[in-house]
Specification:
With 62 residues, chain A is an all-alpha fold. Chain A has helices at residues 11-25, 29-47, 49-59. Chain B has one domain (2-175). Chain B contains eight helices and no strands. Classes of the chains: A mainly alpha (62), B mainly alpha (184).
Chain lengths: 62, 184
């Protein structure tokens, strides 16, 4: 074994951590893509022109 | 092997990163280096590529040295070898983001507007960038966990120290005109 399994100290944290962790160990994009789309829609809806300016800033970012 | 591992990092990042930390060969990293050099040369018309490439190499080297020196299991040399293997693969989302940004810059040049098309593209671009950022965070976490062989709390603690030191450096690089978005 390369590393010991994570133990967050209290079962209240360790149990949900292990349940969530499973989704990120295999095929994380199944969750990442919908989360990102929802996040992006939320950002544009909440911040409007600021979000659009952020995109312009990032596009000049390379 | 490089492409097999890259696909593995998309579909099963945990087991792929663990394998990379244990058994990858040095010849695999040449692809990342070639892609990085091609990227900076292709931005030649926009920025002075040598500045960008040297900035990226300094950030890469500095990151590996920084994490190698932090207390964890193994000697500094062992940690450095593992970090070179794993950290190089965490540059995959970075490369994909920079290449696609370059592509979109010429396909749909900024600035964006608040028209329906502008907002739609903004949603797409933010979602795309967020996806790659989350993937990058997952790979970074796994890289530090398997290279330094430490637990979650200590990974978070080390990452916070890293960010506290890196953010002023990124601002310095921005002010010097070397890179607007840090190549990490």
């Amino acid at each position: 074994m390369v590393v010991e399994p994570n133990d967050l100290g209290i079962p209240f944290l360790t149990i949900p951590y292990r349940k969530i962790n499973v989704f990120f160990k295999t095929a994380p994009f199944i969750f990442i893509v919908p989360l990102s789309i929802l996040g992006a829609i939320g950002l544009v809806y909440l911040f409007g022109i600021l979000a659009v300016r952020l995109v312009s800033l990032l596009q000049y970012g390379f | 092997m490089f492409f097999k591992r890259s696909i593995g990092l998309i579909f099963s990042p945990y087991s792929s990163m663990r394998k990379i930390s244990l058994e990858s060969t040095w010849s695999e990293y040449i692809w990342i280096l070639i892609l990085t050099i091609i990227y900076f040369i292709s931005t030649n018309s926009v920025h002075f590529w040598l500045n960008g490439l040297s900035g990226a190499l300094c950030l890469y080297g500095g990151t590996i040295i920084f994490f190698s020196l932090l207390p964890s299991s193994g000697t500094i040399q062992e940690k450095m070898q593992r970090l070179i293997k794993t950290w190089t693969y965490t540059l995959l989302p970075t490369l994909i983001w920079f290449y696609s940004t370059l592509f979109f810059y010429f396909l749909i040049p900024p600035p964006r507007t608040t028209s329906i098309l502008g907002q739609s593209f903004s949603i797409f671009y933010i979602a795309f960038s967020m996806s790659l950022l989350i993937w990058k965070l997952i790979l970074t976490y796994l890289c530090i966990r398997f290279s330094l062989r430490i637990h979650l709390y200590r990974v978070i603690y080390y990452l916070l120290i890293y960010l506290a030191l890196s953010i002023p450096l990124w601002i310095f690089l921005y002010n010097m005109g070397i890179s607007r978005i840090p190549f990490v």
